[in-house]
Amino acid sequence: MKEAEGLESQRGLRRLYGIAKTLFWSLLMKLTPARRVLLLVAFAMLVMSGLKFHSEKNAALDMNFEVMAALLFLLLLSLELADKVTMKRDLEIAREIQSWLVPSEPPKVVGADIAFATRPQNSVAGDYYDAFYPNPSALDRLMVVIADVAGKSVPAALLMATLQASLRTIVEENVPLVDLVARLNYYACAHSLNGLRFTTAVLCEYNPNSRRLNYVNAGHNAPILRRANGTLETLEAGGLPLGIRPATNYETASLELKPGDALIFFTDGGEEFGNARWLNAIRNLPDWDAQQTLQLLMKRVDEFVGVTRQSDDITCLVFRSRAETL
């Protein structure tokens, strides 16, 4: 920060020199120690190019430092490219593994349908979404989850994977929702680096028989419920994000989903769209199924973002209640 402020106050050649020095130093610090030596030697040879050295017998020895410097630069570039190729391959494998942790298609729900989409900023993401029956033989308890790990790329993706594993393990014990969230919070606190790697989440239990939805919002963007008559509600009951404080009390809330209601979950990557735009887009939703609703919402986000580079992971999940009953 101080270096940036210093560059702002400089002018002319001094400013150009400062920028070049900062860029060179940044490049140097990204290399391994051995490659730093190679880079410095290559630059030294480039500076010394054209010099002549004389032996004791006064015979001129022309040292072609340009060629030697070029070879060192080529070697350094080859090593860096090899690392990039390996890293890209590893990220592709990580992305494939991460795709196994989230559903490829939504579960069948009597009286409702679900759709979801995610767009990672990088190859892997810290967003997590899920919809599953803890006990496939008992279809009266559906879990619907959306979460966002602080950070991006590989570190966030690794924590997302541990969250998914913890959730799947605890939910099989058939504990109450508030206890489920509390236990997830204790686990998250143990791996949050003193709160630096927290996770926001909304966890829901839905009973298709009664159409009751119980939920806890752990510091996440409040899902928006659009009633069939066009009125909007937000799901805000809950507490702090997971991983902030072990002794956190979470509040649960319950509501009934009626035919024609649409419940929209999204992560903070979509927050750039703005709450006002989200509310306006959801308020004017046509009476479509979940997949069509999802496509329309993502289209609205795309129209707003345009060609701007995505700055965060974006995930959206749509839960649409239908007239069908058991």
Plain-language structure description:
42% of the residues lie in helices and 21% in strands. With 326 residues, the protein is α+β, with helices and mostly antiparallel strands. The chain folds into two domains: 2-96, no CATH class; 105-321, Phosphatase 2c, domain 1 (4-Layer Sandwich), CATH 3.60.40.10. The strands form three sheets. Strands 4, 5, 6, 7, 10 and 11 form a six-stranded mixed β-sheet that branches. Strands 3-13-12-8-9 form a five-stranded antiparallel β-sheet, with helices on one face. A two-stranded antiparallel sheet has the order 1-2. α5 packs antiparallel against α6. The model has no long low-confidence stretch (mean pLDDT 80).
Number of helices: 8
Judging from the principal axes of the Cα atoms, what is the shape?
Answer: elongated
CATH superfamily of the largest domain: PPM-type phosphatase domain
Helix-strand category: alpha+beta
How are the SSEs ordered, and which strands pair?
Layout: H1 2-9, H2 12-29, H3 33-47, E1 52-54, E2 60-62, H4 65-101, E3 112-119, E4 127-132, E5 142-149, H5 153-171, H6 177-190, E6 199-207, E7 212-218, E8 224-226, E9 232-234, E10 238-239, E11 253-256, E12 262-266, H7 275-283, H8 290-305, E13 314-321
